[in-house]
Amino acid sequence: MFVNRREVQIQWGDCDPANIVYYPRYFAMFDDSTSTLFEVAGFSKQDLVRKYGLVGIPMVDTRSKFYIPSTYGDWITIETRIESIKRSSFEVKHNVYKGEALAIEGFETRVLVGRDPVNPDKLKSAPFPPEMVAKFTGSEIRS
């Protein structure tokens, strides 16, 4: 499994008046972490558009489990991996660590999307390119 880890320092603007991270900020961090995962794996946004004809990887479902809060100035580690890949959809998991302790588990379902070849004004799910499947999972597409 391909995994990316990134260190994030909690900023003043991430926190609510109680000085803990306002939960929607984590979802923005997860979105950045998914984009970074693709980039580090060698699939930049430019590649997604030019090479694969995609227009994006929108999120269709998300949820989190919160265990330990973070506050202004804390450093957290976000560990991101793709848990499973289907034809065009995939499951992403984010484990957020505060030191060695698991602070948050984040889950996303996303879909590769391109232009509909029949009607370019519409979007349509696109199949996962085999080289992406191999990079992220080391195996073939599961249905």
UniProtKB/TrEMBL annotation:
**Presence of the UniProt keyword Hydrolase in the record:** yes
Query: Could you confirm whether the keyword Hydrolase appears in this record?
Result: yes
Q: Which Pfam families match?
A: 4HBT_2
Keywords in alphabetical order, please: Hydrolase
Q: Which SUPFAM superfamilies match?
A: Thioesterase/thiol ester dehydrase-isomerase
What GO molecular functions are on record for this protein?
Answer: fatty acyl-CoA hydrolase activity
InterPro entries, per the entry: 4-hydroxybenzoyl-CoA_TE, HotDog_dom_sf
PANTHER family xrefs: 4-HYDROXYBENZOYL-COA THIOESTERASE FAMILY MEMBER, ACYL-COA THIOESTER HYDROLASE YBGC
Please state what the protein is called: Acyl-CoA thioesterase
